[in-house]
């Protein structure tokens, strides 16, 4: 047996900032060296950021990635870090002739081993996910290699993200190849309960491969996606050895005792379980084990509960969208209701209360308690506020145009949206919308009104979960609470006298159960009725959800936290005559 100290760099790269990500690579490698690591592993496509979407189809972008990889290897050596092997994800291109159906330039979701100033070996993701938020058949061609490098006597294999999630491919030949450790760079987005799924997956793959497994994941927000870290190491029996925290950058350093490698160097070909042929490439870095040393105690970070996970994901998603897009501040309308109160609180936790601006925009129908609840939240959170009554502005519109019913109600929302966008334009604030998933699903939002903005923090949060998140946040010690009245009062848009959400919608706990089944699980009408939902309600809600598709296409992005969000996950035609049997 031989000892190895592994460092997993759970980092937050920025898509397109190749030079900045390369700087980060050097800095985190230095930290790993200071901790005495023998190997450091970075996440999937670390140098370019992930997902880079159509940028990967540009030859200039791919060339910049390949050039940065070689320069990074040289720079590590020049700065005295060359003897520490680095596994890092980047964008490469396959040497393939162009053909119909192949992504332009044949991009590769690639991984490389850097050592002593050289790019020692390269490989690429074999399984290309094409479900949920992933479109990788659009972007990449597959790789068919499994690199194994002998480091201090231990054979270390490398696979990429989805290759762990799917049967067959490179991971299925690791046991036959006899590796002692499998390292897997990942770009695995957060959704609820995914941490449990990851651990079970890593444990199963470790047992199948007959070796320890190190899973490193990125952390941070990228448009709609939030990466939650949660990097981990399991031993060959699948037992958890070490685990990094969720939703924060971390260098997880762990000592492992691993079997010494015995396989012959060079290349060999193996048939994988999916029928493909994988080329195993073995290279030698160092044959002799390190001198025995006293290992550090492994770290297993505590787990967050479900509501804490969701809240941290929303905060991280807002923080990184603001930071990575260069905004200095945010602005939103504060109504005194629970949705805007939660968004303001998330924003304050994400970017600091001093950078959050809210506008109270009471109308002729606004209740006194709505104003006082909003003012109380401002006082508690210490955020910036101003009051802009809209009654006279609405009246000015009404003098020039005659509107009735819903059109008259929506005018109020559009005046508010216009005010927020004007203040954004004047001061450079990012406008945060405050609509929740239940409202977006059923079309209870106003185009160019409450839907106007740049980012939607609770877009993927059902109304019933909004209340739970507010109660969870209020239970946290040392945090300024959301006013209780904002949580307990009956929800209303206050666009007409005595308006309540329940005037036209069922109670949210009933509605949200139906929306989970229809939107997130893709159940049809008959399945919904068979699942116990009221047939008349099923008919009503299917109609509302289907008719609102055109609105959702025009809604800002927001953090994904459920198995299926409105955006990258769920893409339906706006123009269609298909309807579930109503």
Automatic annotation (TrEMBL):
Residues annotated as catalytic: 44, 125, 161
Reaction(s) the record says it catalyses: deamido-NAD(+) + L-glutamine + ATP + H2O = L-glutamate + AMP + diphosphate + NAD(+) + H(+)
Pathway participation: Cofactor biosynthesis; NAD(+) biosynthesis; NAD(+) from deamido-NAD(+) (L-Gln route): step 1/1
Keyword Plastid: no
Segments of this protein annotated with the region Disordered: 476-506
A GO cellular component entry from the record: cytoplasm
This protein's name: Glutamine-dependent NAD(+) synthetase
Binding site for ATP: 333-340, 434
Origin species: Microbispora bryophytorum
